[in-house]
Every structure is written in C-alpha cells, then in structure tokens.
Amino acid sequence: MAHQPLVVAVELDGFGAHPAAWRASTERPDAVLDPAALRRTVLAAENAGFAFATFDDALTTTDATAHPAEVAARLDAIVRASFAGPLTTRLGLAPRVQPRSVEPFHLAAQLASLDIATLGRAGWVVGDDDQPGLADALDRVVPETPEARRQEVRDVVTTVRRLWDSWEDDAVIKDVTTGRYIDADRVHNVEVTTATFSVHGASITPRPPQGHPVVIAPEDVLDPSLADVTLVAGPDAEEVAFRAERARRQGATRVLAEIAVVLDDDTAPGAGGQGNRGSAAQRLAALDAHVPWQPDALRFVGSSFGLVALLEQLAPAVDGVRLHPAVLTSDLRVLTRQVLPRLHATRLARAPRLGQSLRDVLGLDRPENVFSRKDVA
Amino acid sequence: MTTANPAHAAATAGAAPAPITRPDAQVHFGVFFQGVNHHTVWSDPRSGSQTDFASFVHVSRTAERGLFDAFFLGEGLRLRESHGRLHDLDVVGRPDAITQLSALAALTSRIGLVATQNTTYNDPADLARRLASLDVLSGGRAAWNVVTTDNAWTGANFRRGGYLDHEDRYVRAEEIVRAAQAIWDSFADDAVATSRDAASWAQPGSVAPVAREGRTLRTHVTPTVPRSPQGHPVLFQAGDSPAGRTFAANNVDVIFSAHGSDLDDALAFARDVRRRVVAAGRPADDVKIFPGTSFVLADTEAEAREKQRWLVREQVTPATSLSLIGQIWGEDLSHLDPDGPLPDHDPVARPIDGTRGAARQGADPTAIARALRTRAEQEGLSIREVVIATDRGHNGFVGTPDSVAERLIRFVRTGAADGFNISPWLVPDGLDDIVDRLVPALQERGAYRTAYEGTTLREHLGLRAPLTRRQANGTERTAVGA
Ligand SMILES: Cc1cc2nc3c(=O)[nH]c(=O)nc-3n(C[C@H](O)[C@H](O)[C@H](O)COP(=O)(O)O)c2cc1C
Question: Which residues cross the membrane (chain B) (predicted)?
Fold first, then answer.
C-alpha cells in the first residue's frame, strides 16, 4: 500500500453514538456514572489498538424534561479522559471542550496536566460553540453572531497554544549554586488581547511533553490551518474525499473522516436488550424505533468486511477516521474483534506502540516554541 | 516569619494546661501537595520531580497507605513574582488540580481528593460540574477547598479581569458555593432508570434546571451530573479573615487553617470558629479544623532538632534570605550580603499583597522590619541568620515519632484541631517516614484508625450530610455512603 497507515480513532461518550444506545447496551442505565464501566470501555479501546479515544461533552443539556428518553447525565470530559490516563498506556485521550465554556488560562493548564499525566497522549477536540443552553449557563456575556463566535474559537485556540509555549522545555534548572529553581528568562508572559478576553501571564503548568497536546477540530469549527487534525463529515465517501481535499487546500495537516457505524452483531449470546443482536439493519431499525438518529457524519450500516472495504476506499483521501460506534457494548466489541485485527493484519492501520506520543502516532512534529524561536531570530 | 515560636517548646511545655475535652478523639491526616514556597526543598539530592505525574502518584499512594483522610492540591493562578519578575528561587509549576486528581482517582480507592479552586475566577456551572464529575468517578471522594483570591494581579489572566472588589470576595464565594450546591442537588435521588425497558432514561421532571441570579453571578443551567455516594463534594475553606471564618461557619465542612503550631493559638482559633458555627445554627462540631503543618522526625529529640536546623538552612538559602527580606522591605535586595546586616532604613510604605505568595497578608512591613532589626541587633544575627531564626518553617512538630504523637493527640483531645494537613518538605518521599513511623505511634496509642471504615471522604472525616440535604429538624434526608 502506497499511503501511510490509517489512524483509527473512536468516540467513547455515553453508551454509544445512537441516542437510544442505552436501551441496547449490556451496561445498566446508570453506567455513564460508573468508574468501572469507563474503565472497561477505555481498556477495550486500548486493547483493540485504536490510536486515540475521544469523549464528547457539553456543559449543559437543554431541558432534560424535553427529551426524557435520552440520557441526561454526562461527566466532564477532561475528568473522564484524565481518569482513563493511568488505566491505559498507549491510547491517546482527547476530551471535547467548547472554547467558550472555559477560561483559556484554565483550559491550557487542564490539557497540559492531562498530557503530563499521560506522558504525551493528550488531545483536545475543539467543540462547537453553538450549543443550546450554553450562553445561558455561562456567567458572562458571550458573543452571539456566528462570525464573532468563530473568531473567539480561533482566539482561544491560539491563546491556549501560546500558554503551552509560555514555559520553555528547559525552564526548570535547579541551580543549587545560585539557589535558582527556574530560569526566569525561559518563562514568558503570553500578553494576549483579543476582542473578548485578555490573558497576561505564563501558564501555571509547565510545557507538556508533546509541546502542544493535539488540537483536533471539525472543519466548520476551526480553520484547518489552526488545527493539528481536521475532522471532516459528509453524507458519502465521495463527499468526504472532496471535503478532505478542500481542508488540505485550506492548510489542514492531518484529516480524519467521521464515520458512524452500526455493525452486524451475531456474536453475543445472552446479555443485553432487544436491539443488541442481529444484522446491522435490524439493530438500527430497533434503535430508531425508540429515537430516530440522523448523524451528521457518513454512516456505515453493515458487516465488518463492508466497513474494512469502506476504509480501504477512503484511505487515499484521508489520514484516518474517527469511528462513532452506535452502541459501545455491541459495535465497539465487533470493531475490537473483527475490524481492527483485520486492519492491523493488512497494515491498513497500525496500533500505537508503547512510548509513542499521540503526535508520534499521528506523524506530527513536536511544535517549536514560539518564544524560544523568537530568541533565535 | 514574625512568629518565632518553636512548636516543640509550646507543645511540650504545654503553655496553658488545656483540659482534655474529647478523650476519644482521633488524629486525622491530610497531605498538602505541593507548596510553591521555600519550605519545599528542591536542592537536596533526594528531591525528585515536582511536576512529574509519578511524584503525585507516590505521595497520594503513600498517604493512602497511611490511611489519610485526604490528598490536597493547592492552587495559585498566577506565577509568583518578586519585584515584577518571576520569583525563581522556589518550586514553580503545578498541574490543574481537578484534572490531576481525576487521574489519581483511578490509582487510589479510599483517600479523599481535595482540589483548591478559586471562587472569583471560575464559572459556577463549569466548576460545579467538574467537581461533581470528580466526585462521581472517585466514588464520593472529592472536595473543594474554597479560596477567594480576588486581586486584579491574578485577574489579569482571566476573562473578567480584576472585576471584584476585595470586600465582595466572600459575597462572590457564597454565591458560587450556593449555586454549586443547587447544581449538585438538581437530580432527584431516583432520577435514573434502573432498567433498559423503563419509559425514559430519567424520570420525567426529575432533573430540575437551576436558575441563579446574584450580585456577582448569573447562571441558568440544566445540570448533567447526579449526586455521588457522599451526596456532595466536601467543602473545605482556607482563609483567615473574620469574613473568611464567618463564611466557613455558614457554608463549609472543614477549615484548612494556619493555626496548628501553638496549642493556645490553635485553641483560640477553634473556639472562635465554634462560636461562629453555633451562631450559624449548626452543631459546634459540624466544622472540622485541619491546620497546615509539617514534621521533622528522628530517633532522638536531639537528632530531630539537629535535622530541623539542617532543614531550615536548606529552606532558607542565602538567595532566599535576601528575597524574603526584599519582600518585607518592598525592594530588590538581592545585591546585599546575606551574611551581613539588615538594611538600616525602614521599608517603603505600601500594603503587602499576601496573595503574591507571602503569608504576611495585611501585616505592617515597617513593624515587621523593626522587629527583625531589633532581634538581629540584640543577638548579633546576619540577614540569613535572622531569617532562619524567625522562619515559619519552625512552625511544625519536631521530635521522635512518640513525642510528636503525644503532642498531636493533645491537640485533638483538647479540641484545638481535628486533624492536620501535612506539607512534606521533600518530594516525593517526604511522607514516607510519617506513614512508616508516626502513624504507627499514633495507632499504638489508640488515636489513629487502623483501617478505613468508610469509602467516602465524608465518612473518613466523620461529617454529617451536606448542609442542603438535612431536614429542618436536623435529621438526615439521605444515608451517606449508601
Ligand atoms: C492555610 C491556608 C492555605 C491556603 N491555600 C491557598 C491556595 O492554595 N490557593 C489560594 O489561592 N489561596 C490559598 N489561601 C488563601 C485564602 O484562600 C484566601 O484567598 C485568602 O487568605 C483571602 O481570604 P481571607 O481574607 O479570608 O484570608 C490559603 C489560606 C490559608 C490560611
């Protein structure tokens, strides 16, 4: 195969991507609150050899009584990713965070801390800020026009990257002779002023192992040139390839296609709800009977062979995929047992190796520090 | 630095014979990690990384092995400066507390996980949710150490800048804590379906949207995190002003105090707190007091004192002595000779801003400087010697494990404290001898648990249900730790 192996990521939020997934899960309805269930899920993803896992999130829901059928609980994604950190050794961990719902100063420290605790496996899925309820939840006035929102996303990403650079890698010197723990000349105030916020100082947290945790963003949320990984979604493979090409022209470094998956699952006897087993089409019909599902992404419904064929078809156009299993306890298991082994055996994809950073896995360079670069110039 | 008060003297001499009012009281421990101040010795060959995750793992697991109630992380939202420049002599750099504790939650099973979080520069809905998430994932082991740092110097790192008047810091603190409690209480106890075949995932109407409009905040949010096994994250408070103490009496479960070396001082503080707690309509023992402290342990008293002398010289390096004097005088004095005399002029008149790293908040620098000069002249001390003689590093317990155990037991049994929040001066091994030697000495005296009895932090601390979860008649609505 001429091209690089595909990067295969997986979304692990909740019970799966389908809004009725909790009914088909073998986990109890309160499993979204259960540390043991989270542990099982991330270990399954790591053992399968996924490159990284993402954790969808939102600060609030719209009124839970308006959608009583859907899961109304969700733990903070950074907290979940961080909890998963010491339980895993190779899996990248990328929480989704809305730039608007956080202080850039806090977010930079949170993601740097995740990267330090995971020895360089952290990413950040930049969330879509146009979320119902978000502006009301926040204790400040937020920009409302789409262009102002987009600008704020750009500003937060740029500021967070500057904060990651505010410590040079070798800032801690522990010079016993002079009594200096740190070289003050290697720590820099970021001095950012934007239309909606300003940040003066250096981060409270040292520069993380990857320099910058991997910034992952949908093409319509952040300019591809500002992301490390751009996510593209489209109704079919042709459209995905077209958008991937467009993102590259706009400066994307790595492009991953979003694919929602519902797979034939005839392997599991016993446990689980009615939607759990059967052909992919039967399973989807059973799930949709509870709540219809219209994912934005390309959706694959079929056999594990069919999914492998789709990935082969996409491979020339994209650097990888992010899979959204409809029901984790069914589709993640089929991915683990039937799809990933095939991808690895045929070298269409490669499992991360021990000691690789998420940047290594994605073939991304460790970014230069803007502040030390200035010194050189 | 102004209170030259060797703790061992105060505690062994037992300045005032305080009565034993609680003969069965147990000593509890927490560990405060890591202090970004000169008491953490980074220059010793045994000193490891201050920031590597492995150091945090070692300390938290050692504390759990020692059956501690809690592992604490401090917070400072702007790197300390002296004279407009990054302060470079002490440990710098900390992780985000909740993120780090979430990772440690996966590697520990019993110890409480306390995140120091600022009330002024956090968003209520976001902060409440992150704390609740940690609380749920840790099985009911989370706590929030509520701190109020409000100055514009810190605010320069945040969206709203220095928006809050200093007098309003506890107005904001109370509003954000109350908003957090409402957010934590939004799910009914039986909200979540117990079967996949239920009509809906959440019982209709079982998740109450929260709307708060106060003087300093507004939020309208439908929360997404139900209560943990301990009901709410435990609330700690660290802040010493009268307003801070009243806030604590009205709102929190535990005070992290700076009154733990001198028994009389600790008793006076405890009496003041209990008076405020009762005035707030709560049982006197509803708020636990955990002074910050440190230990120097050795086989004999003489060895311990020798070790203490060594330690203070490690902490107060020549450069640090000049820096500490410079903070009092308000000017850069790094050019002076640390082995020479103090400056003979008075400090420039200006308020010391305590949150820039100094603990002498609000104290008058001229008075401090004059006291130091008088002491130096009387005893013929150099700059470094007078700093060493008056350093707060003395404010810990120095002795053999047995003698220190006796003094700690006296603190808790006279009601001066409920436990101690230990700052190890060496990372990551500074807790090892405390767990290996002091904890057994306490256990032999029947004054320290020999196993965790509960699983939640609220249970370790012996707390009642969260304040919002008690009924008017004082009985508890929910079984804690169920
Ligand atoms: C023992 C102790 C520990 C503290 N630790 C912190 C800390 O880690 N981070 C912080 O921002 N403030 C810390 N503070 C500062 C207080 O929380 C508070 O913001 C400050 O003292 C102002 O409140 P006050 O006027 O009531 O004293 C601490 C205070 C005390 C007494």
Answer: none
Token representation of residue A26: 């073998």
Closest protein CA for atom 14 of ligand 1:
B238
DSSP H or E run through B321: helix B318-329
Nearest residue on chain B to A275, judged by CA atoms?
A: B196
Dist CA B325 CA B338 (whole Å): 10
Q: Give the closest residue to A157 by CA, choosing from A10, A356, A363, A367.
A: A367
CATH of the domain at B280: 3.20.20.30
Q: Are A217 and A98 in contact (CB under 8 A)?
A: no
Closest to B202 (Cβ–Cβ): which among A72, A76, A110? A72
CA distance B184 to B464: 17
Q: Do B202 and A202 touch (CB under 8 A)?
A: no
Ligand 1 atom with minimal separation from the B150 CA: 19
Question: Do residues B366 and B438 share a domain?
Answer: no
ipTM over 0.90 threshold: yes
Q: Do B220 and B343 share a domain, yes or no?
A: no
Min Cα distance A307 → chain B (Å) is 29
Q: Is the pLDDT of residue B481 over 70?
A: no
| Residue numbers of the domain that contains B370 | 317-390
Instruction: Give pTM, 2 decimals.
Output: 0.95
Is residue B7 one of the residues assigned to a domain? Answer: no
pLDDT tens digits, A314-323: 999 999 999 9
Contacts with A84 from chain B: Cβ below 8 Å: 106
Q: Determine the atom of ligand 1 nearest the C-alpha atom of B118.
A: 11
Nearest C-alpha neighbor of B245 from the set B281, B292, B280, B216: B280
- Whether residue B177 lies within 8 A of chain A, CB to CB, comes out as no
Final residue of a domain: which of B330, B362, B390?
Answer: B390
Binding site residue list of B for FMN: 116, 166, 170, 241
Q: Quick one: pLDDT band at residue A140, thresholds 50, 70, 90? A: confident
Domain with residue A180: its CATH number is: 3.20.20.30
Helix (H, G, I), strand (E, B) or coil at B143: strand
Q: Does B161 touch chain A (CB under 8 A)?
A: yes
Considering the domain architecture, whether residues B270 and B220 belong to the same structural domain is answered as yes
- A33 in B contact zone (CB under 8 Å): yes
The amino acid present at B72, given as its one-letter code, is F
Contact assessment for residue A191 and residue A203, using Cβ atoms and an 8 Å cutoff: no
pLDDT of residue B169 exceeding 90 = yes
Interface of B with A in 315-344 (CB under 8 A): 317-320
**How many residues make up chain A in this entry?**
377
Q: Provide the domain limits for residue A101.
A: 7-372
Query: Do B344 and B399 have their domain in common?
Result: no
Q: Is B329 in the pocket of ligand 1 (CB under 6 A)?
A: no
Find which of B49, B96, B121 to mutate to test the A interface (most A CBs within 10 Å of its CB).
Answer: B96
